[in-house]
Specification:
Largest sheet: 6 strands, antiparallel
Shape: elongated
Strand content: 15-25%
CATH architecture of the domain at 1-124 and 452-559: 3-Layer(aba) Sandwich
Structural class: alpha/beta
CATH class of the domain at 1-124 and 452-559: Alpha Beta
Strand order of the largest sheet: 2-1-4-5-6-7
Number of strands: 15
Distance between the termini: 22 Å
Length: 560
């Protein structure tokens, strides 16, 4: 649950520090005082969209900090696996919006990217606002809500994976299902391309070797001259110039004699090593010279081969890529020439994967229908508590002809608020007030299975009046027995049920306007309830407010 919230320079809120406990907490105030701004700040803290317009005028940044404790075991495990373990069972979140547009996100005091921050915030708070009513008007959201209420996401994932496997086989079948004429043309084209590559028969690395050989043969005259010059200088010598090996021989002989007369210099071994190294080097150069052959026709062969290899460049920038292209064309050609075998193989795979899908989809369908029956019964009781005793809620399933993500059927909610009227699609029959009560009833069911510890309701009583508004308060108080519940409301009948009550006030201080959030004492609560009840005679409304508090307190005490 949310234990602490600190908001600074957010909208009209200058500095707001709040501590929260369990149960039902309400926020009330005049229209425009900034009640929804507090929910907006919490939304930003939880990774919602943040822009510079949210920064208080004249300030360079806005900050929101929150501390959560009493976290669900699965959420604690998720934090541990992500590398941000809870500290003494608590989670610390921080979000800063700068006027430069830069956002700072911290978890447990460590800065992290926004995408990771958002993922870690999932599952902390369930925020329900008036806009959420609209999701019930969209049939495509109904099945997700049904699965959420039933805790079926694991089963849905298994079905989705089976559907993906089946659809992948179907795509392969479509790719093979081209006309015979097109297949024949493609086969001829592939054979022509493959034959062109195989006529050349390129070898990986061949082009580099040929270029090196071409370079050597093109400079054969200069190479021969340099080799002869090097060999002559090392071993043969020339007119008036002794060879290096002869001069080293003289030095070797002198040092050998020196070593016999005085062994303190001790360098004879070195000259011996140098002498034989030069002799070996001269032998290598001689062998290279004797083996070096220049064949003009070989240079022509290399040129011709390089031209052939260059023509293959349209299949790839390197010979390795050319050979990879050849292999892929051979594979495609094999598929085309053995298309019947491919069709048989794919047909077998299709039957196998479809059967596998149908097994898991049927298991999901059975669970969905079981959950749907439970929801219908549960909602009947919840809606009766909210003044819709005669209403009927149904979950209807429309079968899908082909295996698809989501399962073998599509769920849609049907509703009738009046006795004798058949249920119709929800979007066509429910009024705003009925939709508010229906969403509250669904949330009441969700609270029993959802691991989220905090529920927030923003004006869930919108469009509801009369005795029913009191029942909305009872329902919120009932949900708050299992969850931490925050509620923004204009209804005194709802606010009276709260265990904690905050008044939100917009005030002018000097030349600035700010929103203040005050924790109300019992006396202040009665005054606030009296204001919300309205009326010209303040004593009458104050007395009514006191009675409302007493009655609501009794209702909460004995289980609303």
């Amino acid at each position: 649950m949310l234990a602490e919230l600190h908001v600074e320079n957010f909208g009209l809120m200058e500095t707001v520090r709040l501590n929260f406990g369990c149960g039902l907490t309400v926020f009330t105030g005049e229209t425009g005082a900034g009640k929804s701004m507090l929910i907006d700040a919490l939304g930003v803290l939880l990774g919602g969209r943040a822009n510079t317009d949210l920064i208080r005028h004249g300030e360079s940044r806005a900050r929101i900090e929150g501390v959560f404790d009493d976290l669900a075991p699965e959420y604690l495990l998720r934090l541990e696996e992500a590398g941000y373990p809870a500290e003494d069972g608590q989670l610390f979140l921080f979000r800063e919006i700068n006027s430069t547009g830069k956002n700072v996100c911290r978890v447990q005091g460590r800065s992290i990217p926004l995408t990771l921050y958002r993922s870690l915030c999932v599952g902390l708070v369930d925020i329900h606002g008036q806009i959420e009513h609209l999701s019930l008007f969209r049939p495509e959201t109904h099945q997700d809500l049904l699965d959420a209420l039933g805790g079926l996401q694991g089963e849905v994932d298994v079905v989705n994976e089976a559907a993906k496997t089946y659809q992948r086989i179907i795509r392969k079948e479509r790719e093979l299902s081209i006309s015979e004429d097109e297949r024949q043309k493609r086969e001829e084209y592939l054979r022509y391309q493959i034959e062109e590559i195989e006529r050349v028969s390129p070898v990986p690395g061949e082009e580099e070797e040929l270029l090196q050989e071409k370079k050597r043969l093109s400079n054969s005259e200069r190479i021969t001259s340099l080799v002869s010059e090097a060999y002559g200088a090392l071993y043969e010598g020339s007119a008036g110039k002794p060879a290096a090996i002869d001069m080293l021989g003289q030095a070797r002989k002198a040092l050998q004699e020196l070593d016999r007369l005085d062994d303190t210099l001790n360098v004879y071994g070195q000259i011996e090593s140098v002498y034989y190294s030069v002799e070996d080097l001269a032998e290598q150069i001689r062998a290279y010279r004797d083996d070096f052959e220049f064949e003009p026709e070989r240079l022509d062969q290399i040129e011709e081969r390089l031209i052939l290899l260059k023509k293959l460049r349209r299949f790839g920038t390197t010979l390795e890529e050319v050979l990879e292209k050849n292999a892929s064309m051979l594979e495609e050609l094999d598929q085309i020439t053995h298309v019947q075998e491919q069709f048989e193989k794919i047909n077998n795979e299709k039957q196998t994967t479809r059967k596998a899908y149908e097994i898991v989809a049927e298991q999901l369908s059975l669970k969905r229908r079981e959950i749907a029956t439970g929801i219908e019964k549960g909602l009947a009781l919840e809606l009766a508590d909210l003044g819709l005793e005669k209403s009927r809620f149904e979950v209807r399933f429309m079968p899908n002809e082909e295996p698809a993500k989501g399962g073998a059927e599509t769920a849609e909610f049907y509703f009738s608020a009046n006795l004798g009227e058949p249920p119709k699609p929800l979007a066509k029959v429910a009024s705003g007030g009925e939709m508010s009560r229906l969403m509250l009833a669904l949330k009441s069911l969700l609270a029993k299975v959802e691991s989220v510890g905090t529920f927030i309701f923003d004006e869930v009583d919108s469009g509801v009046g009369g005795r029913t508004i009191h029942r909305v308060g009872e329902k919120l108080a009932k949900i708050a027995q299992d969850k931490q519940v925050f509620c923004i409301t204009h209804a005194a009948q709802v606010a009276a049920f709260a265990e904690a009550h905050y008044g939100i006030v917009k005030e002018v201080n000097g030349e600035r306007t700010r929103t203040r959030v005050d924790s109300l004492s019992e006396v202040d609560r009665v005054e606030e309830l009296a204001r919300m009840l309205g009326g010209g005679e303040i004593e009458i409304t104050r007395k009514h407010a006191q009675e409302l508090r007493q009655r609501s307190a009794r209702g909460t005490m004995f289980g609303a």
